[in-house]
């Protein structure tokens, strides 16, 4: 990428900052109070809350891509909005470059948002239809009072080129309705990149796009991470998408992280039954590859009625009495991989749980043999 006169993010590069983590989240929580109606001021009862996110902890290192995967209703988007400070947490902390930004306000919040930008799911809703592409992409520069005039024009041209909209002059003065869905999303990505952030949060950025253009947008994210030394938090309910983009993967279910570790291990080992069920739902490309079907049934329950103990227990095919006794914590299964499941707690497993353990160990052995 060619340099311009607007230099924003010169001191945040992988391996050059003192803090080992770019972003660290500890016990992040978001509860929404339930009320009787739109005009009622009283809650439905004591403790009546939608527990959208309930004590999530993870970190993102410089140059790393972290994926949040899970069904709709798992709390992925609410987590992303809190990280971008579009919503305020009920509890927990967010540290960026070692600084607590959980309650940042005014200038501190503006300074934080230069470094953390977000790409939203629907490119048809997030672009102002009355603005030309040039106005859309340069808006963050105006808000943050960075550069002016020709500098804005040069930077916008550069960003459009970076995201694959070229020649840039062909797009600068178009309106969103003159663009395809893929082109709209690339404009949204250019707008997010124009401040040269250290962290890009992408909330299911390919879900609303035609299948024919998804691959191009996914390849763009991989290229951006490599070329710009960018950290990415990538949200998706599609396992295959996460595995293509991310170094590390966290599996979320009903506001909690069920499993987190290196993407290759999370997808191949699948220590948690929920991770195993998500993998079983993937389409099989090779007809000879026989994969057992997912054994879970029903839908994810509402976040206002959290099950006792393990949140996944009511749908888990390996449920045992210990699963509903108390909520299992995230425990390490190796140096970089953690799982919240009683199957790996050290207690005597049931026969079905033992069979699940053996399947996980067999997959590990097969992976080791293939390597």
Can you offer a commentary on this structure?
- The chain is of the alpha/beta class and 371 residues long.
- The chain folds into 2 domains: 23-33 and 47-246, Rossmann fold; 268-282 and 305-370, no CATH class.
- It has helices at 76-83, 106-115, 133-143, 150-162, 181-193, 211-228, 239-245, 263-269, 273-280, 351-370; strands at 23-33, 49-60, 65-69, 91-96, 99-100, 116-119, 199-203, 231-236, 248-253, 256-262, 331-334, 337-339.
- The strands form 2 sheets. An 8-stranded mixed sheet has the order 6-7-8-3-9-10-12-11, with helices on both faces.
- Helix 4 packs across helix 5.
- Mean pLDDT is 87; it is low at 1-19.
Please name the defining characteristics of this protein.
371 residues; alpha/beta; Rossmann fold; 8-stranded mixed sheet; 4-stranded antiparallel sheet; 10 helices; globular; disordered N terminus
Secondary structure layout:
Blueprint: E1 23-33, E2 49-60, E3 65-69, H1 76-83, E4 91-96, E5 99-100, H2 106-115, E6 116-119, H3 133-143, H4 150-162, H5 181-193, E7 199-203, H6 211-228, E8 231-236, H7 239-245, E9 248-253, E10 256-262, H8 263-269, H9 273-280, E11 331-334, E12 337-339, H10 351-370
Parallel strand pairs: 3-8, 3-9, 6-7, 7-8
Antiparallel strand pairs: 1-2, 1-4, 4-5, 9-10, 10-12, 11-12
Quick structural summary:
The chain is an alpha/beta fold.
CATH class categorisation of the largest domain: Alpha Beta
Please give the radius of gyration in angstroms.
Answer: 22 Å
- Global mean pLDDT: 87
Name the shape in a single word. Answer: globular
* DSSP, total strands: 12
CATH topology heading of the largest domain: Rossmann fold
Which strands sit side by side, in order, in the main sheet?
Answer: 6-7-8-3-9-10-12-11
Domain count: the total is 2
CATH architecture of the largest domain: 3-Layer(aba) Sandwich
Task: Pick out the low-confidence regions.
Answer: 1-19
